[in-house]
Amino acid sequence: MKRLILSAAFALSAATPALADDVTDTLQSAIEAYESGDVQYALEELAYAQQLLRAMKAEGLTAYLPPAPEGWSREVNTDMNQGLAMMGGGTGAEAVYSGNGVSFTVTLMADNPMVGAMGAMFASPMLMAAGGEIIRVGRQKFVDQDGELTALVDSRILVQASGADADTMLPVLEAIDYKALAGFGR
Predict the structure, then answer these.
(1) Which of 23, 41, 20, 36 is nearest to 10 (CA)?
(2) Dihedral sign (CA 160, 164, 166, 172)
(3) What's the pLDDT at 59?
(4) Region label for 45, one of left (φ > 0), alpha (ψ between -120 and 50) or beta (otherwise)
(5) What are the backbone angles phi and psi of residue 86, rounded to the nearest 5°?
(6) pLDDT averaged over consecutive 10-residue blocks of the chain (186 residues)?
(7) DSSP β-bridge partners for residue 143
(8) Nearest-CA neighbor of 160 among 114, 120, 100, 124?
(9) What integer pLDDT is reported at residue 12 of this predicted model?
(10) Are 124 and 143 within 8 A, CB to CB?
(11) Cα-flanking dihedrals φ and ψ of residue 65, to 5°?
(12) Whole-angstrom distance, CA of residue 37 vs CA of residue 14
């Protein structure tokens, strides 16, 4: 068990060298709790360290949401990840773009089991076309289903835009760096 806790602590702390002190302090607290025989508290501390790291990862995904177009505003939804736990986990980021009396939402969802299940549909052009009209944003294919634009990046990251017509949402979708997004979390 001690080896497992130390391995988890090392892996979590090695994930990014500049982790916040809260993470390293929590991992150290887990080790100390284990060494003193308080396994339950060690588990609680490890769970808390994971929560902190997931929040850091979510902030990283938020960086892929483009800034608002000229004359528009962008409001990031910081509560998005709480709902993902009920959908099998993963990391999410979401922003509402508002301007000219219109608003729409762009959602990014990575490493969620439900998203992975959609991979077959996006891998098959016939299935994709059956789902709606295909729209290209650079090299990325989106399916337009009654105004909701959906794409799957690297078979694991869902990108959705909804709430306005496609022509209004496309400039924001065009501003996403899909190649960099495919490398998220790796």
Answers:
(1) 23
(2) negative
(3) 72
(4) alpha
(5) -75, -15
(6) 48 47 90 93 87 73 92 86 58 92 94 70 61 87 92 91 95 95 85
(7) 134, 150
(8) 114
(9) 47
(10) no
(11) -75, 120
(12) 25
Token pair 């496309």 in the structure block, residue: 170
> What is residue 152's predicted lDDT score, i.e. its pLDDT?
92
Structure tokens at 101: 């009396």
Both structure tokens of 144 = 């337009």
Alpha carbon distance, N-terminus to C-terminus of the chain: 27
Quick one: tokens of 143? 């399916």
Contact 173, 142 (CB under 8 A): yes
Please say whether the dihedral angle defined by the alpha carbons of residues 126, 169, 76 and 178, taken in this order, is positive or negative.
positive
pLDDT for the residue 10: 47
Would you list the DSSP string of 57-72?
HHHHHHTTSPPPPTT-
**For residue 159, what is the enclosing H or E element?**
strand 157-162
Residue whose pair of structure tokens reads 């769970």 in the numeric block:
47
